[in-house]
Amino acid sequence: MSAPATASPAAPDGWLQRASRALGVVEMAVGGAMLVALLGLVLLQVLLRLVPGLFAGVWTGELARLMLVSLTFAVAGRLTGRGEHITLDMIDHVLGPRQMRAVEAFASVVVGITSIAFATEAWALLTSGAVQRLPSLGIPVSTIYAVPFVGLVLSAFRAFLGLFAGKNG
């Protein structure tokens, strides 16, 4: 009886899977930090409204909204890679394994192409050099599109990686 074959560390899918897992850890760390920051901002906003004499700036609400949208895109790649993005699982119970793999491959292609299309638009907005700024924070509106751009690129990467490696957490 021979030992089971294992993937060589130098194999392309081996290092790609390890890189994907490491990227997933970074994505979840960033997402977790953003979630904690969002909670802190919302609590600060409540405190600023309730305690008399404190400066009740509107910047906390604006930053919290921006953080929520950024959080969505920051973890989009991770969710896509794990197959945990929004899906309709109605036909999963009807199809066999081979047909289900074809549906998953088709869905990965659609998600990948859509993510690339949206990332292209986010890049155009990011590099537009628009002079408009957020009212209370003063951040240029064009720079806000950096997080969606990165999240969409990672979603496309994970979707196409899923074609070859399946769920790649």
Describe the structure.
This protein is mainly alpha-helical and 169 residues long. Helices cover 66% and strands 0% of the residues. The protein has helices at 12-50, 59-74, 76-81, 97-126, 146-165. The longest helix is centred in the first third of the chain and has 39 residues, at 12-50. The radius of gyration is 21 Å and the shape is elongated. The chain starts with 11 loop residues before the first helix and ends with a helix.
Give the radius of gyration: 21 Å
Overall pLDDT: 79
Largest sheet: none
Query: What is the approximate shape?
Result: elongated
> Distance N terminus to C terminus?
32 Å
Blueprint (SSEs and pairs):
Layout: H1 12-50, H2 59-74, H3 76-81, H4 97-126, H5 146-165
Structural key phrases:
169 residues, mainly alpha, 5 helices, 66% helix, 0% strand, disordered N terminus
Please provide a brief summary of the model:
By secondary structure, the protein is an all-alpha fold. 66% of the residues lie in helices and 0% in strands.
